[in-house]
Amino acid sequence: MKTDASTTPRALATEAVHAGREDLAALGVHAPPLDLSTTYPSYDSRAEAARIDEFATTGAQPDGPPIYARLDNPTTARFESALARLEGAGSAVAFASGMAALTAVLLVRSSMGLRHVVAVRPLYGCSDHLLNAGLLGTEVTWVDPAGIADAIRPDTGLVMVETPANPTLAEVDIRAVAQACGSVPLLVDNTFATPVLQRPVEHGARIVLHSATKYLGGHGDVMGGVVACDEEFARLLRQVRFATGGVLHPLAGYLLLRGLSTLPVRVRAASATAAELARRLAADPRVAKVHYPKVGGAMVAFDVHGDPHAVIAGVRLITPAVSLGSVDSLIQHPASISHRIVAEGDRRTAGVSDRLLRMSVGLEDTEDLWRDLCGALSAAGPAEVAGSAGSARTEGGIVRSLHSAGL
Ligand SMILES: *Cc1c(COP(=O)(O)O)cnc(C)c1O
User: Fold this and answer.
1) Considering the entire predicted model, what is its pTM?
2) Most exposed residue of 146, 240, 261, 401, measured as fewest CB within 10 angstroms of its CB?
3) Is 392 a residue whose pLDDT tops 70?
């Protein structure tokens, strides 16, 4: 859905609860209606044919009543409109998942003959895999941010970065990278920072991708993806979405719109806790290295001296599970789970060590989380620096973790 650029800009917290809901009072309702229709009646098939032609040629969201749920849904359109507003983008197009959203972006570019992608590691494991496997007929060149300009070819259709990146929380300078891209569109996966902490369009990114499954939904109960971009690119994405069918379910659209209303509050509260946990972990002798981004956020990653699998097995309050961005805290071992699909050598060069754990900090009390983490870290064995009775157990931990990494 296109946003109304003539509206006076309002603060993010205000947009979060009002964007996408502007017409509700006129409709005489307070909560957004949930429209589950798959099809819509029309007694004028000439007019409907003209509207279908219009969509096929322009990709503009058809005016008037919807036609078919793969083309258009009013509940999902509310979420799209709100997310575009939060990201400061002209439009947004929602998909069934973050991976469906990335797929559509790649198909838009490769259908124009622009099959080459320049990307910076690390990326989310499945994004890395989708590019590296060339499943969609794309070819990828992996570079450091400084190598982007040199890697661009005449057939380069996209530059892709994630910042902070999953799972190491490595950051790239979006403005510098956008400059290096020249006329090639820059896609920034903004799943970790969310528009609360970072709005990549303001720094020159043309395409902003979200796994809406994470912070936008925020409660671990809805899967979705969304691309915020200019209306010109959104039109191409809608056409690909219609052709390939990776649409967001309207109930998911409803839940995502509801999730957006608390996004600023959730992200700020969880980030404050995450920053405090990062400080404590950095001072803990059982922890080798802490990764916490300058932009902040609710994700913390850390390398342990002991057995990372024992930490996962040792948590009681924190849930040992993949995914992130929920109201409750989750922890996982990227080399085993989220980045398992990335070849071991590529994981290593991306800085994903076998000792790395990634924690998604939720809204629990800081002291309760710290107590749980401390208990789990103790279960992983003492720091190697101890050099005493504990070291044998620590070595056992290393061997176990190498085995589980496929060595
Ligand atoms: C989870 C994730 C994705 C993929 O999203 P799905 O909704 O699981 O398809 C993409 N990028 C990042 C950074 C993610 O964390």
Assistant:
1) 0.92
2) 146
3) no
